[in-house]
Amino acid sequence: MANAMLDARQEGDSYRRVEVITGERRRRRWTGEEKARIVAESFEEGANISEVARRNGVSRGLLTVWRRQVAAAVVGKAPNFVPIQIGAESGSGTAGEPARISPLQTTPLEIAAPPAKVCGVVEIEVNGARIRVEPGVELATLSTVLAALRCIR
């Protein structure tokens, strides 16, 4: 019993071996680094997801879940920008030899976010007066303005 193996006798005096498994089966805990490495391997060009999963002892379904989580996180991220370095132009180059550029001076550039596109503008006409309502207007303010227009005209 110490080694969790029992011999049992069946009908006809034949023996069969029974394995007793004690304790509960536990799920493997994957660290963030392990997940990142496995997912990165699965995104490599020409990689077969099933083979990557099998090689790392992960079920294909779990690897697919991890890949979807990474893809969703990438879609939600703001685009990354690379700093631009601007150097003085020397103009000494010829057709066969590229121009040599003096050492670059790093100039940080401010990259402004594109202006928010106005969408969802609603035009309301009340008694001949037209109001343009843009997103973000408080309901209480709009109600007050509409009530005033109904009373005036």
TrEMBL record:
<comment type="similarity">
    <text>Belongs to the transposase 8 family.</text>
</comment>
<dbReference type="GO" id="GO:0004803">
    <property type="term" value="F:transposase activity"/>
</dbReference>
<protein>
    <recommendedName>
        <fullName>Transposase</fullName>
    </recommendedName>
</protein>
<dbReference type="GO" id="GO:0006313">
    <property type="term" value="P:DNA transposition"/>
</dbReference>
<dbReference type="GO" id="GO:0043565">
    <property type="term" value="F:sequence-specific DNA binding"/>
</dbReference>
<dbReference type="InterPro" id="IPR010921">
    <property type="entry name" value="Trp_repressor/repl_initiator"/>
</dbReference>
<dbReference type="Pfam" id="PF01527">
    <property type="entry name" value="HTH_Tnp_1"/>
</dbReference>
<dbReference type="InterPro" id="IPR002514">
    <property type="entry name" value="Transposase_8"/>
</dbReference>
<dbReference type="InterPro" id="IPR036388">
    <property type="entry name" value="WH-like_DNA-bd_sf"/>
</dbReference>
